[in-house]
Amino acid sequence: MSVSIAGRADWLSDKHLQRLLGALTEGGEEARIAGGAVRNALMGQPVADVDIATSCLPQETIRRAE
Questions:
Q1: Residue 12 lies in a domain
Q2: Within 10 A of 8 (CB to CB), how many other CB atoms are there?
Q3: In this structure, are residues 14 and 47 in contact, taking their beta carbons and an 8 Å threshold?
Q4: Structural domain range at position 19
Q5: What are the pLDDT digits (tens) for 9-38?
Q6: What's the average model confidence in pLDDT over 41-61?
């Protein structure tokens, strides 16, 4: 099931988060918000931290995040 929270989640437009997601998705890789941020957003609760799942290998994730 796919549910959009974009209209209810101001934290998604954070410039730092957007920059990181952009770096992680370069070259066709995938990055998705996961975990408690999604749960809290769906429940209307504040989002304090964001977990990201990515198709990048760990070393590549580190390189892109730097």
A1: yes
A2: 10
A3: no
A4: 6-65
A5: 788 889 999 999 999 999 999 999 999 999
A6: 93
Would you state the pLDDT for residue 49? 93
Overall number of domains in the chain: 1
**Distance between CA atoms of residues 44 and 51, nearest Å:** 17
- Give the burial class of 24: count Cβ atoms within 10 A of its Cβ; 0-12 exposed, 13-18 middle, 19 or more buried: buried
- State how far the Cα of 42 lies from the Cα of 1, in Å rounded to an integer: 14
Beta carbons of 41 and 8 less than 8 angstroms apart: yes
Mean pLDDT of the chain: 89
Q: Which residue has the tokens 């070393």?
A: 59
What is the Cα–Cα distance from 20 to 23, expressed in whole angstroms? 5
State pTM to two decimals: 0.81
Among 59, 58, 57, 50, CA closest to 21: 50
